[in-house]
């Protein structure tokens, strides 16, 4: 999730399809995990998510794009797996490229101006008052 | 909050001070509201937040930067207000400039590649299955 966290800065890019998130940091991480693990359930376990939650995230992605991003690997059986489709690969690559473009753009004078004003850590909390 | 939402894209930039958010979309909106309303309580009301939550957000900001971002307006009394400090103005301006730089960087071929692959709206949800 903190792939593009630069020092104190955290960036998040989400693409919406209606009111649903078509891709964002969590779904991109899930696509990476499916690509690596070769199955939806193993990817979910690797990310510490329930199978139901993992499946719902995949289903949302599969409904939000021109074509599904994840499909069952042919063959079936008890160890039936899943893999990224060509559309899934294109979406993941373009999303990572977008994140990289944002990270590059963030590394400029605006962030420098903010960083020099940041305290090293928060000072202790005061007690509430009116103001 | 959707100030820099471009079509299907939503961007979020947060700066952290330790584990606390020193500035992000919500806190920037609150600074704008304090600047406009001239008081913390009126700003919170304008954003539909409780006074306690509003005050805690201001307190976090005031502890996270080299100097406080918001201070009580001199004079006091029942209608005592609040305003941005010079540091608060600099932080808000630099954060808005960072958001603008990100929005500009996002408006490129990576977003175009994603947008052409997005469906117009999500297709209906399937029933869960293994894959």
Description:
With 131 residues, chain A is an alpha+beta fold. Chain A has a domain at 19-103: Arc Repressor Mutant, subunit A, CATH 1.10.10. The first copy, chain A, has helices at 25-37, 40-46, 51-64, 86-106, 109-117; strands at 9-17, 20-23, 70-72, 82-84. In chain A, a hairpin with a 2-residue loop joins β1 and β2. The longest helix of chain A has 21 residues, at 86-106. Chain A is elongated. The two termini of chain A are 37 Å apart. The mean pLDDT of chain A is 89. The interface between A and B is large, with 64 and 64 residues. β1 of chain A pairs antiparallel with β1 (9-17) of chain B.
**Tally of contiguous helical segments of chain A:** 5
What oligomeric state is this? Answer: homodimer
Rg of chain A computed from alpha carbons, rounded to a whole number of angstroms? 19 Å
Overall 3D shape of chain A: elongated
CATH architecture of the domain at 19-103 in chain A: Orthogonal Bundle
H/E series of chain A, N to C? EEHHHEEHH
The greatest interface here is:
A-B, 64 and 64 residues
Let me know the CATH homologous superfamily of the domain at 19-103 in chain A: Winged helix-like DNA-binding domain superfamily/Winged helix DNA-binding domain
Unreliable parts of chain A: none
Largest sheet of chain A: 2 strands, antiparallel
Q: What is the highest CATH level, the class of the domain at 19-103 in chain A?
A: Mainly Alpha
Characteristics:
Arc Repressor Mutant, subunit A, two-stranded antiparallel ribbon, 131 residues, two-stranded antiparallel sheet
List the SSEs and their pairings.
2 copies of one chain form a homodimer.
Chain A: E1 9-17, E2 20-23, H1 25-37, H2 40-46, H3 51-64, E3 70-72, E4 82-84, H4 86-106, H5 109-117
Antiparallel strand pairs in A: 1-2, 3-4
Helix pairs in contact in A: 1-2, 2-3
């Amino acid at each position: 999730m903190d792939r593009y966290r630069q020092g104190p800065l955290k960036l998040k890019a989400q693409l919406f399809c209606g009111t649903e998130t078509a891709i964002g940091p969590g779904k991109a991480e899930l696509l990476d995990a499916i690509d690596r693990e070769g199955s939806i359930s193993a990817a979910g376990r690797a990310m510490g998510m329930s199978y139901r939650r993992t499946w719902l995230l995949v289903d949302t992605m599969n409904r939000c794009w021109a074509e599904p991003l994840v499909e069952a690997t042919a063959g079936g059986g008890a160890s039936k797996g899943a893999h990224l489709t060509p559309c899934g690969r294109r979406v993941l690559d373009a999303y990572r490229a977008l994140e990289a473009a944002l990270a590059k753009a963030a590394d400029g004078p605006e962030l420098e101006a903010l960083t020099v004003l940041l305290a090293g850590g928060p000072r202790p909390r005061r007690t509430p008052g009116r103001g």
